[in-house]
């Protein structure tokens, strides 16, 4: 939704991971089919780029997440647990903000709007 609301100004990237309650327990080739027919279903087609399934924690952490977690500390309301459900906002190629696992991604729009206002000045 947000990517279509801010075309040419916002890019959303999805990294499926099976480390959080087994949400992505299918193979890479089955992930898009699963989105379309199972969860969320109803013919859902993501309007953003979906990468191959990766790990965001542990010894096989994808380099993107290793970099982001190194650059941005734990959010204040997130306990320092071994298993993290990372959500990041990147601004002009640089890590800007890390959100806690309690943060609902739907609420990210005010931060996006604030950053987009910065580019107008």
Verbal overview:
Belongs to the glutathione peroxidase family. The radius of gyration is 15 Å and the shape is globular. It folds into two domains: 13-54, no CATH class; 62-121, no CATH class. The strands form two sheets. The chain has a two-stranded parallel sheet with strand order 1-2. The protein has a two-stranded antiparallel ribbon with strand order 3-4. The chain has helices at 2-5, 28-37, 63-71, 109-120; strands at residues 13-14, 49-50, 87-91, 94-99. It has four helices and four strands. With 121 residues, the chain is α+β, with helices and mostly antiparallel strands.
Helix content: 25-40%
Counting helices, strands and paired strands, the structural category is alpha+beta
Order of helices and strands: HEHEHEEH
Average pLDDT, rounded to a whole number, is 86
The total of beta strands comes to 4
Largest sheet: 2 strands, parallel
Overall shape: it is: globular
User: pLDDT under 50 segments (min length 5)?
Assistant: none
In whole angstroms, the N-to-C terminal distance is 25 Å
Overall number of domains: 2
Q: Strand order across the biggest sheet?
A: 1-2
Beta-strand content: 5-15%
Count of runs of 4 or more consecutive helical residues: 4
CA radius of gyration: 15 Å
Task: Explain the layout of strands and helices.
Elements: H1 2-5, E1 13-14, H2 28-37, E2 49-50, H3 63-71, E3 87-91, E4 94-99, H4 109-120
Parallel strand pairs: 1-2
Antiparallel strand pairs: 3-4
